[in-house]
Amino acid sequence: xxxxxxxxxxxxxxxxxxxxxxxxxxxxxxxxxxxxxxxxxxxxxxxxxxxxxx
Length: 54
Prior knowledge:
It comes from Bradyrhizobium septentrionale. By secondary structure, this protein is mainly α. It has one helix and no strands.
């Protein structure tokens, strides 16, 4: 009844978990920079960016 079960699936090592976290943080920062860049370009171009022919 009290048997030890092995975890299902792949078990990552501490180094792999750290690497995954660093990669996730780097992707989040890159995405944030890209959003800020698009926002800044939109602000610099002004309201003219919304006036265009369809």
